[in-house]
Specification:
alpha/beta, 16 strands, globular, nucleotide-binding
Length: 689
């Protein structure tokens, strides 16, 4: 392939990226604008034209799958020698190589999860935490480490970042400190420490830095809006003052700020590199003009919009649909019917997705699709190649490949092997059996595709092993159910965005202006996943017969053709405390209550009160389950003080529950039915609002 051939077929902006073979270069690439095509052709053009050596290129991205896609495209462009890795994979490779040479001994082992070490840390400090709380503490430690915050600085840093730790910040510090001591004593590294140690090796050992910088002279970083301070530190250490760097990203798709990611490295790139070439990709090849128009309008109301309006390149399609339902059950059933209609019209089920804000919303759609006999898969569950049936099939296929004869045909052999582990001619009705069948059918379909290209069994097994290493699963025939975060980087012919209400999108615990804007970008990401068909829906009540008090998301104001809500609940400014309208008296002794906790309880902390201990425990168990499903700290659902107040007052109606401090309209709508149900189950009244 000649250099000119690499440039063929690129649009003017993509070609500008490809021809900018030396850095610094900043590519602002909107959703669906072909950024991967642009940067792979840039690398290939730079190598084929002799501007750089393939062995000197390091392309960095955030997921194993994305790195695998980069390598695959570069191989197709005739540049197989380029290294394309995640930050962690590249750093671990360097750390493992240099550790024995400059430190001595075996390099530290990598831990996949912080939880086992945190359990040990809890024992050391005499603290007993639930598993959901441990996960939340692990997230806090990860945030602290990627933002380069040590235990001694955590309290102040968390306060400035408006973080709400799952346990008192001082206890997070104690666990963080104990965790780090245990990790070092056991000669272990977590994913953050891999980056820290690699940067430290280069900083403290000049020969290590020299060798790595001689190896890699030309850097490309994808999804640059998701870089965190620790990754930026490692990248700067790799560069060593050089500026042969190309970064690619979209500030409008910044949706991981809660993990420490920040778009400022992308938006400030021209400030950091005044001579940088800045190129915008705005031609959207993914979505119809109707979908693109809605995406642009979602962002047009942003508080600080980044000017990257998309320009659709596809032919016209149907207008996005906005649907309102009486309750969540009706919404799920309506979506299932719409999916069935699309399937009857020829849209493959694997090209349809239902996207929601939190994973707990998945259950209603799983039930609705099961009733409608629509196969589905839940993204974010077991990875394809880690599913038991897939692992078993790959082991059997690997064994068959070793003993295969020259006359063994690929497709019949694979079908015979897969039939032995559960692949039947007809698909089961649903549930786990259907999920297993879909996994095996995906392997069989891949075998047939490769057989048509002339592959043999050994080649098929090699392809499976490559895909497993890159987490590149074959398509499964079923509707995808996924959270908006899990959907980033993917696309489908038809997308249903469900549960688009205030309190869910934006989520109820998004309070600061920056958090609200990130929720808006999350909706934008969801909209831009759709190629042709797009439906946004919401339910006015949680359950059939429930109070219809929900409102469509404020982000849809002016977009649906319906009148905007007259008023919206406002959040206090960061650090601003909401105050009561007047003094609150103790319901036991009538004294004025001084503290917020006493005002929530409605009594003095020292006043005696009877309450149902079993009900309080049931409320806490329910809260833990809800928080786990929503992947939020338990106190975000209700604080301990609020649960205590509920157990003491035992509300029997929505009005009673709303009278308890800490239970606002949004939480009443989301959790009211469940809380009142627990109170009724404990034998306290049957009144309903």
């Amino acid at each position: 392939m000649e250099p000119a051939d690499v440039l063929a077929g690129l649009d003017p902006e993509q070609r500008e990226v490809a021809e900018a073979v030396r850095g610094p270069v900043c590519v602002l690439a909107g959703a669906g604008t072909g950024k991967t095509r642009a940067i792979t052709h840039r690398i290939a053009h730079a190598v084929r034209s002799g501007a750089v050596d393939a062995q000197g290129v390091l392309a960095v991205t955030f997921t194993t799958r994305a790195a695998g896609e980069l390598r695959q495209r570069l191989r197709e462009l005739g540049t197989p020698g380029v290294q394309a890795r995640t930050f962690h994979a590249a750093a671990l490779r360097q750390l493992t190589y240099f550790w024995p040479r400059v430190i001595g001994g075996d390099p530290p082992a990598v831990i996949e999860s912080k939880l086992p070490l945190l359990i040990g840390a809890c024992r050391q400090i005499g603290r007993d935490l639930e598993r959901s709380e441990l996960r939340d503490v692990a997230s806090e430690i990860e945030w602290a480490k990627v933002t380069q915050t040590g235990p001694e600085d955590y309290v102040e840093a968390a306060r400035k970042a408006h973080r709400t730790p799952p346990i008192p910040a001082e206890e997070v510090v104690r666990l963080y400190d104990a965790y780090e001591i245990i990790r070092r004593e056991r000669h272990l590294v977590d994913f953050e420490t891999i980056l820290e140690l690699t940067a430290a090796l280069m900083t403290e050992h000049r020969e290590v830095a020299t060798q790595i910088r001689q190896q890699y002279r030309y850097f490309v970083v994808d999804e640059y809006q998701d870089v965190n301070p620790l990754q930026k530190l490692l990248l700067d250490t790799w560069l060593g003052g050089r500026d042969d760097l190309c970064v690619v990203g979209d500030p409008n798709q910044t949706i991981y700020s809660f993990t420490g990611a920040t778009p400022r490295y992308l938006t400030n790139f021209p400030v950091e590199h005044p001579d940088a070439a800045v190129i915008k990709l705005v031609r959207d090849y993914r979505s119809t003009p109707q979908v693109v128009s809605l995406a642009n309008r979602v962002l047009s109301a942003a508080r600080t919009p980044h000017r990257l309006a998309l320009i659709a390149q596809r032919p016209d399609g149907p207008e996005p649909v906005f649907s309102e339902y009486d309750d969540e059950t009706a919404e799920a059933e309506g979506v299932a019917r719409a999916v069935r209609r699309l399937a009857d019209d020829g849209v493959p089920l694997r090209e349809i997705a239902v996207l929601f804000r939190v994973n707990a919303q998945s259950e209603a759609y799983e039930q609705a699709f099961a009733r409608a006999a629509v196969p589905y898969l839940v993204r974010g569950a077991d990875r394809f190649f880690e599913r038991p049936e897939v692992r078993q099939a790959v082991v059997l296929l690997r064994g068959a490949a070793r003993s295969a004869g020259a006359d063994d045909e690929l497709a019949p052999t694979v079908h015979h092997i897969l039939a032995g582990v559960g692949l039947t001619p007809e698909a089961p009705g649903g549930g786990k059996a259907r999920e297993k069948w879909e996994s095996l059918k995906a392997l069989a379909d891949l075998a047939e595709d490769m057989a048509a290209e002339g592959a043999d069994l050994a080649g098929f097994v090699a392809e499976l092993e490559r895909r497993a290493s890159e987490q590149h699963a074959p398509p499964v025939e079923g509707v995808t159910l996924a959270s908006l975060h899990a959907a980033k980087g993917l696309e489908w012919d038809a997308v249903f965005l469900v549960g688009v209400t205030d309190g869910m999108l934006p989520i109820v615990y998004a309070e600061t202006p920056d958090q609200i804007e990130e929720e808006r970008r999350l909706l934008y990401v969801g909209v831009t996943r759709a190629r042709v068909h797009l439906e946004l829906s919401w339910a006015l009540a949680r359950s059939p017969g429930g109070r219809r008090s929900r409102r469509p998301s404020r982000f849809l104001d002016g977009l649906t053709g319906r009148p905007a809500a007259k008023s919206r609940p406002s959040s206090a400014a960061p650090g601003q405390r909401r105050t009561a309208a007047g003094p609150v008296s103790c319901r036991v002794c009538a004294k004025t209550l001084a503290t917020a906790a006493e005002q929530k309880l409605g009594r003095c902390a020292t006043c005696p009160v009877d309450y149902d201990e079993a009900l309080l425990e049931n409320l806490k168990t329910w809260r833990t389950a809800v928080a786990k499903e929503a992947k939020v700290p338990a106190y975000v659902v209700f604080t301990d003080v609020t649960l205590q107040a509920i157990a003491e007052r035992v509300p029997t109606s929505e009005q009673d529950l709303l009278a308890i401090a800490g239970v606002g309209r949004v939480k009443l709508e989301r959790y009211g039915d469940a809380v009142l149900g627990l109170c009724r189950a404990a034998g306290y009244g049957t009144e309903s609002a």
